[in-house]
Recover the amino acids of this structure.
């Protein structure tokens, strides 16, 4: 009897693996496996016309932070690289914070509608989420460029007589990323607020808690998994952003994503591009580990 | 609104912020759509309604090629990713947890966790060697890459549908001596179909939207619509690009509306 059960269980598990196999093989070949090849490439020597020569070298990894003086060959910190890293981290963090500040009230607003209109508001957040990132970047570009909506309106009202130059600045990249990644913050926040028992608010008020105390002591701890998930969902793509900084930042205000691409174009330094990608992946993995820890802690509290 | 005093209105500024957010989300998109119907080159000044930008885009051979290529890749990627995702979803739901289930789950969701640019670089490196070794330069690389990153998008709605499904019908079929395959084909699959179609649509839209991975993987002359549009970006973006954007936007809204109807829970 138990031997029979065990055999059935074995068969069930074997079937599960067999059914999952095509998906796993596809992902292994066209998503995960190449990441390991990329790691190997970060330890090779750049080829003269792109690609690599199969000679081991630490140069790419040293090159992520240092540049070699062309005359005496001494190493010094590469300021240009550090500027790009700092800009990427700074803009991604700023984007995460601002999307949270405006996204939280928005998610709250949606979650407190009547069930019927809630579906509609949710749909309205979902449309921008699924709209091509490129199109949304074009749209925000149209608003903030010198001849765009903001400057036209301000000049028409007589507030300014020269357009404010926003395009091709860090501010433009930040505004653009906030615009394109906002739905990624609102959706998980909504999911956690939606599960929130509104009677807890009542209890808080009955016990004479101020609005601020209710927000900080009652709401935030309970919706914490949503806050962490939203922050991760915004921070990760923002840190690796390519399209938005390319269009709104111009050539000068590069982020890591654009810097990586450069190594495969004009830079002709594939190992450096690979090393930078591995570096980005490590930072993202750390962020994800933080997320797993923070979200499991949240469930223990709840 | 009995609960009003305990919700949004007691938290000052929440409603105002939310309304501002919705306006800020839609105003730029609306401006872009209006721009695609504007007679003038500049969006700043309205110079009469026209469809000429749509006609111009339609007559452009590059746009036509890129559109067909985008649709071919998105359709194949949607079918492939949905097929493998359906099998994986059946394998990982409604069973007793088994060793390695978390591993499968992590593998499937991997494309959601790794930044696109990183996957793009890894695929560029890997496919470059294969291109040299085999001499094959075709669309296969793009189709494989797209199929892979679409898997989680197809998997999630199918899994959600499976988890919400009633087991009794399948048990009934088995009790009536239907073979497992017959039960699957006649009972499980029809019940699962809305989830499969929803997953396929999300995969299709995801593939159609992709810029970064396509940019790195494509060989010369393999522009898709998004990479073509990106390449056209100058200091001022042409209304022709806005016309293409408007069409893509309309397509996205239609697919999403269908998706919502399909996945709506019957209350």
């Amino acid at each position: 009897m138990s031997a029979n059960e065990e055999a059935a269980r074995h068969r069930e598990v074997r079937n599960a693996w067999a059914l999952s196999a095509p998906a796993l093989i596809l992902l292994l070949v066209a998503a995960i496996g190449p990441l390991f090849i990329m790691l190997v490439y970060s330890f090779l020597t750049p080829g003269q016309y792109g690609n690599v020569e199969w000679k081991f070298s630490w140069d790419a990894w040293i090159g992520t932070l240092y540049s070699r003086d062309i005359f005496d060959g001494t190493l010094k910190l590469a300021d240009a690289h550090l500027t790009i890293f700092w800009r990427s981290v700074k803009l991604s963090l700023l984007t995460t914070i601002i999307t949270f500040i405006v996204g939280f009230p928005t998610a709250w607003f949606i979650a407190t509608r009547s069930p019927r209109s809630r579906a509609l508001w949710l749909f309205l957040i979902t449309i921008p989420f699924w709209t091509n990132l490129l199109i949304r970047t074009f749209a925000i570009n149209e608003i903030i460029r010198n001849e765009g909506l903001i400057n036209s309106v301000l000049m028409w009202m007589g507030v300014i007589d020269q357009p404010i130059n926003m395009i091709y600045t860090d501010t433009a990249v930040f505004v653009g990323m906030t615009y394109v990644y906002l739905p990624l913050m609102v959706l998980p926040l909504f999911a956690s607020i939606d599960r929130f028992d509104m009677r807890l608010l009542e209890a808080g008020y009955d016990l004479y808690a101020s609005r601020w105390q209710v927000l900080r002591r009652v709401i935030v701890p309970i919706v914490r998994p949503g806050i962490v998930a939203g922050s991760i969902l915004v921070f990760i793509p923002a840190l690796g952003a390519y399209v938005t900084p390319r269009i709104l930042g111009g050539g000068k205000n590069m982020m890591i994503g654009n810097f990586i691409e450069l190594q495969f174009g004009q830079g002709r330094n594939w190992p450096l591009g690979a090393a930078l990608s591995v570096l980005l992946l490590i930072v993202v993995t750390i962020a994800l580990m933080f997320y797993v820890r923070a979200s499991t802690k949240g469930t223990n509290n709840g | 609104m009995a609960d009003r005093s305990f919700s949004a209105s007691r938290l000052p500024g929440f409603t105002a912020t939310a309304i501002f957010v919705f306006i800020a989300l839609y105003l730029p998109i609306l401006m872009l759509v209006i721009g695609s119907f504007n007679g003038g080159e500049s969006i700043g000044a309205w110079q009469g309604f026209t469809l000429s930008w749509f006609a111009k885009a339609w007559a452009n051979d590059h746009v036509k090629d890129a559109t067909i290529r985008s649709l071919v890749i998105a359709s194949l990627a949607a079918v492939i990713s949905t097929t493998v995702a359906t099998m994986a979803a059946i394998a990982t739901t409604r069973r007793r947890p088994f060793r390695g289930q978390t591993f499968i789950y992590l593998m499937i969701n991997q494309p959601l966790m790794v930044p696109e640019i990183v996957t793009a670089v890894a695929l560029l490196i890997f496919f470059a060697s294969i291109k040299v070794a085999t001499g094959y330069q075709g669309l296969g690389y793009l189709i494989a890459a797209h199929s892979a990153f679409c898997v989680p998008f197809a998997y999630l709605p199918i899994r959600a549908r499976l988890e919400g499904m009633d087991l009794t019908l399948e048990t009934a079929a088995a009790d009536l001596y239907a073979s497992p395959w017959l039960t699957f084909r006649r009972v499980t699959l029809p019940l699962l179909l809305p989830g499969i179609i929803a997953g396929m649509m999300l995969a299709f839209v995801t593939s159609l939207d992709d810029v970064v991975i396509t940019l790195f993987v494509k060989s010369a002359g393999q522009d898709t619509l998004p990479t073509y549009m990106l390449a056209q970006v100058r200091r001022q973006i042409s209304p022709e690009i806005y016309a293409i954007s408007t069409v893509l936007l309309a397509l996205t809204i239609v697919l999403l509306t269908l998706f919502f109807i399909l996945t709506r829970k019957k209350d």
